[in-house]
Amino acid sequence: MTNTHTRPILITGAAGEVGSVSTTMVRMLLDAGWPVRAFVRVDDGRAEALRRAGADVFVGDLLNVADVAAALNGCRRVYFSMGLSPYYVDANLLMVAVARAQGDLEVFVNISESEQTLLTFDRMTAPEGIRLSWLGGTVSQWSPQQRAHWIGEQVLDWSGLPVVHVRASIFVENPIFAWFPIPDLLATGELRLPLGEAKVAPIAGYDVAELCASILEKPAGHVGRTYTLIGPELKSMSEFADDYAAVLDRPVTYVPQDLESWNTDYVDRALAADKPHNAEHLKTLTRLMASGRYFDVQTDDLAALLGREPKTLRFALQNSTRIRADLAASTG
Q1: Is the distance from CB of 171 to CB of 24 less than 8 angstroms?
Q2: Sorted alphabetically, which PANTHER family does this protein's record hold (predicted)?
């Protein structure tokens, strides 16, 4: 497509993994003829793939204000994302400060979380017993990452920038659905998750990417809005077992697990030593989902926003590069 746009769109977290929203957005915007500046932390194979696709790859640190200013220079539209990090607030505030100093931003799309709908000031400051009753009896305190997103949203709203918050529910590509269960599924056909019969509605990263890209392309009508999104299918894991079976081409049975034992055996074993911040966030998500409260929020109509039916869990699993690699290894 002929490029008729001159100002690049800045996409941070462009080499991300979970959901691959930023990476998908880079390719969508390039296909639509937009110049894209892809902010990455490391100049590795993922960065080179973005270059080959046509992106202007900027290698830098979101915690370095000089890097942030250089990356944003000449850009009037920005998508801000950063992986799970104890320094998320620092990076968010630096981007806000630089964008305010630049002074000519047209839109700032901020990826956030659907649970922010639950993080009202009154609820966050209520006595512990009330917080427990609101959140199903297993969670009285939010994860550090959830609190960081809350602070980030507050600062963006105070900043005067042309902000759009996109609050997405848990991605299908999250390790809880797409990493941790797969070895057991391939070995035994058992879908082992600690969610009981609670219904969940994970969202495909592809849909979030398409919506955010469309906002960046045509921000009119979106600035100042907050969108809360969940996936198109609200089902129990017993019901989702059929989707895993179709993707893995084998019978699958859902075997509910004890919540805290599963968190210890899967999340802590994989992440607690090296990434305790990430581990705490994932454990909080399992507790919220198991309580049945995580998806009990008022949401926007994803199909109306996209102009099409949203992608299902089955679609996202079928298109997961990690699951394809695990399948190939198991049959190779």
Answers
A1: no
A2: PRESTALK A DIFFERENTIATION PROTEIN A (PTHR43162:SF1), PTHR43162
